[in-house]
């Protein structure tokens, strides 16, 4: 269980792994995630969305970006290695039905959790339009996989090295101005990107869902680390989400909470990297 069956580097600091876990594989639904721990004793617990699953192989696919100590250590594991603990599937699955015209916006690594949602929305009979965005061409991931379930695909890069030289909000605004406008927008990516996607759709009264990736420890709502303000209510991403109405999310508060441990995380990552380089000498 939890054996790494396949590993691939998708782009700079972004990795794909297929991990053997038939129990999670058979139960998972679009939009759900796992919590991973590399060390049985005191290892950090991090949430990662299930990007795909293969029931024949009994595996789940995880796609992650190296941003801290644990993802750095995870990226150094290879095929045949095992992960100590995987808990899941967690969170409420995406509500799937035939809405009509669904626009799915993925920014950077956010394309990974969007992938199973696009699959499910297309299989439910929706017209699916995908917008993929990244800083440059090399950071675009899952382009072919997303195109396979898209009626139309739009690619944006900040530097214009591929597709449109634009932020994802530009084509999203243009789609909202069309007749018919989207029946539903799902945006997943960096918090600031999801915030501005939600602000883009607000004037057009287009329902917009965002998938939040906050600090989590236990994944059951008990630690309170993942709490967010949704409208006038406090919610917990691990049990009430991860998807919420983007027009109700207090993104500024969430971003401030995400940065609470930034200096500690950077120090921990640097120490881990220095230790690894020392071992390589």
What secondary-structure arrangement, pairings included, does this model have?
Layout: E1 3-11, E2 14-20, H1 22-27, E3 33-37, E4 45-54, E5 59-65, H2 69-75, E6 85-90, E7 101-107, H3 111-123, E8 127-134, H4 143-147, E9 152-157, E10 164-165, H5 169-176, E11 184-188, H6 191-201, E12 208-211, E13 227-230, E14 233-236, H7 237-240, E15 243-245, H8 251-258, H9 262-280
Parallel strand pairs: 7-8, 7-11, 8-9, 9-10, 11-12
Antiparallel strand pairs: 1-2, 2-5, 3-4, 3-6, 4-5, 12-15, 13-14
Helix pairs in contact: 2-9, 5-6
Structure keywords:
globular, 281 residues, Elongation Factor Tu (Ef-tu), domain 3, 31% strand, 6-stranded antiparallel beta sheet, 15 strands, alpha/beta, Rossmann fold, 7-stranded mixed beta sheet
CATH topology of the largest domain: Rossmann fold
| Main beta sheet strand tally, sense and closure | 7 strands, mixed
- At the fourth CATH level, what is the homologous superfamily of the largest domain? Nucleotide-binding domain of ferredoxin-NADP reductase (FNR) module
* Shape assignment: globular
How many domains is the backbone divided into? Answer: 2
Order of helices and strands: EEHEEEHEEHEHEEHEHEEEHEHH
* Beta-strand residue percentage: 25-35%
What is the helix tally? 9
Annotation, overall tally of beta strands: 15
Radius of gyration (Å): 18 Å
What CATH architecture of the largest domain would you give? 3-Layer(aba) Sandwich
CATH class of the largest domain: Alpha Beta
Mean of all residue-level pLDDT scores: 91
Strand order of the largest sheet: 10-9-8-7-11-12-15
Helix content: 25-40%
Distance between the termini: 33 Å
| Low-confidence parts | none
Structural class: alpha/beta
